[in-house]
Amino acid sequence: MLRISVLLCAALTIGASLGNSVPFYNDDDEFSGASSNLQTNLQEQIKALVEHRKQLDKELDTIKIANQIELTALREEIESLRKEITSAKESSGPQSTSNNQQRNDHLTVQWLQSAVQQIRSEIQTELSASHNTSEIHSQSVSSLSSEVSLLRGDVDSCRADLEALRRDAELNTVQNQQNVEEIGNIREKAQSCSASCANLRVQLETAQSEWSSVLKPAPVQSKISTNNENRADSSSSVTEHMPKDYERRLRRVEKHLKTAMWSHAKSASREAEQKELLERVSQLESSSRTNARKFFNISRDLAAIDKVQKSNAQLKEQVTLLENRLDTSIPELQKEVTKMEFELAQTSSNAQVAKDSQEVQSKSLKNLMDLVSGLQDGLDENRALISVLKHGALSSSASSLLDEQQNDEESAAADKSVKRVVRDISRIEKDFLHILHTLPQDCEAISGQSGQYLIAPKLAPEELDSSNVIDAQFEAPILASCDQKSGAGGWTVIQRRTEGTEEFNRDWAEYRAGFGSPGGEFWLGNQAIRRLTADNCSSLRVDIHDIYGQNWFAEYTEFSVGTEQDGYRLWVNGYQGNASDAFEYQNHMQFSTIDSDRDISNTHCAANYEGGWWFSHCQHVNLNGRYSLGLTWFDSTRNEWIAVAWSEMKVRRRAGCAANKQQHQQQ
Length: 667
What we know:
- The chain is α+β, with helices and mostly antiparallel strands.
- It folds into three domains: 2-169 and 310-350, Orthogonal Bundle (Helix Hairpins), CATH 1.10.287; 356-438; 443-666, Gamma Fibrinogen, Chain A, domain 1.
- 65% of the residues lie in helices and 11% in strands.
- The chain contains 13 helices and eleven strands.
- Strands 1, 2, 3, 4, 5, 6, 7, 8, 9, 10 and 11 form an eleven-stranded antiparallel sheet that branches.
- The two termini are 86 Å apart.
- It is found in: Secreted.
- Residues 434-655 form the Fibrinogen C-terminal domain.
């Protein structure tokens, strides 16, 4: 902004210097209008900047007051939490009679202390962020004030330059009017001089003709009569005086001629002056055009100042957004503190209950925490632990502990605790499996809007052993993206590419398990796709957008994927859509990855194009390759490839497929 104002003043100063050397402007009304508009625009901008600064000051004051109030409240709440934790420690200490109870209470208090410490760190982070925001606001206000002061000085200097330019323009206008009047007078005098010269020329020609007729010699006659001689004698006295008269008239004509020549020369000099005046007028016009261009540049600089003001408005909006985020984060922190207070009250009440109930509750809490951590590590470990305990490993370890520590009371308590943990884990796992089996098998059973839902597809036949025992690793639910807008809805999305942020050059294990986020780019997983399509009752829809913004789709009424032992072999049938049947070239092909080449090409397609796919000869269809290399779909109708910018693959069950299978089985 300071640079724009300096350029503006420099332009006005240059215009003023040019106006002093050459005439500046022709039209006084246009100049006065432009200068008045410029002055009003500058005044409005100064007023807007001053008002913006006042608003920023008010907002900073309100933010500081609100932050101080909230900081005081949070400090008081944290102090009360500390007191309650201290009282809980003191109240729970005398009542605990066993080492296990004290250890559980101590762990609970440590957990609460860590939670409070985490809340404290978050509050400090928010306070530092708010402090940084206030510092940024103060810096922006100081910079705005300095810019406003500089702008005021620039406006004053520009105003003085405008006054000087206006005076120069008025003087130039008066001089132009005088020059125009002088040019008109000179033209009239030149016309009168040319007329007088023409009259003198006519008189001179007349005098020359008369003089030539007088001085012309008379013809010689051989015979002169007497009468002629007498007539000549009588007229000789008259002719003697005629040459003198003619000489006198000739001198007068010469005098008039000299006067006419002098006036002609004077008119020629005046014509030269007229040409010089015309040249000066043309210079004035060119300087006027130059000044008009300078005024245009000034108006463009003012437009740039308006853009700066708009950027200031955007900065204000961003500050408002930051304040809103701060306002929303503080209530969340208060909710967390309230939640911690509630949990602390529950812990205090549990500490005051009898010994047996307190022991059960503390152990249940510990078992629940252990269960959550165990579920995160994997249900297979819990299953292995239960199987070991059922086959006598626990009894043997317990007997060995009893042999080694017969007189130790803690061994019996530990034995009881382990058995209780086993029972609790078994009960919670049963509840977990019950909840898991109540989940929908796919997105078709979901009646809500498009979004992310937990589903639990039926296991494939090869996932059950001969005794129909389900392996624990197949019991995890799947977070799937459901599309309820395309067609009749109920589509389970198995693949999405949008902008190339997710790496698709993965190995066989990663493609088997799936990767990415259902909210962005992802691959659901080959085993999950196998489970969704194992009963051969699924349809496939592929939606793609090319780099030119055109939409394409291909839908297959029959779609399934084979077992892992068969390489997740692809099978599609019943094509329809405006994109060609590109899967025809890759039907019945196994899935290839960077570490498992199963295509029929001489090259390693998955390694060359950096993505797993059902490759045959590489590039007929490849929606999982490197995004920068290009995703492709071959259009056989046009004999060219579609440059894919966005793709989404989704499956759903065919209508009436399960009913037809049941009728066929009954027959």
